[in-house]
Specification:
It contains seven helices and twelve strands. By secondary structure, it is α/β, with parallel strands linked by helices. It folds into two domains: about 5-125, Fructose-1,6-Bisphosphatase, subunit A, domain 1 (Fructose-1,6-Bisphosphatase, Chain A, domain 1, 2-Layer Sandwich); about 140-250, 3-Layer(aba) Sandwich (D-Maltodextrin-Binding Protein, domain 2). A five-stranded mixed β-sheet has the order 1-2-3-4-5, sandwiched between helices. It has a five-stranded mixed β-sheet with strand order 7-6-8-12-10, with helices on both faces. Helix 1 runs antiparallel to helix 2 (about 35-55) and helix 4 (about 150-160) crosses helix 7.
Length: about 250
Amino acid sequence: MTIIADDTELAAYLAKAAGALVLEMRDTSGLVAKELGNAGDQTANQFLIRALAEQRPDDGLLSEESKDTDARLSKSRVWIIDPVDGTREYSEGRSDWAVHVALAIDGAPVIGAVALPALDLVLRTDQPAIIPPAPVKLRMVVSRTRPAPEAVAVAEALGAELIPMGSAGAKAMAVVRGEADIYLHTGGQYEWDSCAPVAVAAAYGLHVSRVDGSPLVYNQRDVYMPDLLICRKEHAAHVLALVQLSAEKN
């Protein structure tokens, strides 16, 4: 594989290539359900970690599908990847799953690519587009299996339509693509779930933060991230206030 000097170009290439690999596996392997999901995760992960070891041998790495070590904590540059975000959706033949490839620099999610392989799309930090204006009735993406009570309460207060969707990456990219306006998550995630989506959303000019308004910081020893908000900037203050109000009531 030829060395790709540009970090965003590398992230986009790897996300797209990993997505193509697992799409082909889904179409040709004969595997189904959990067996297919596990195989897709492992195939994409092996491809990504080998490619990053070759392309950026001095950088750190954090992957959902690889054993974590302390080695990355001393690195300024750390690649954070989710080989298949939304394994369940992938294995069910749905389109709302993603491949995440991001580079955090000194904890900030500055470079990233999110592939939506079933839609043949890659959203990346160096190619932002103008997001269409929000409709009168706002739209909030939530988990299709377990919508967070806080998100439902905020949606009700806003009069927003709930749009059930699979993976975190697919939800975030729905906002980036103008198909939704708010992605509020309070059910807990990990760094690989949000690093690439947050990088892309920020590059598109969207608001990204914790639900208390504080920044999202990556490459931490504890990779658990309790919550996040991705939305249009004009809605951020209102949504954050409603989250706080909901927390005080509960």
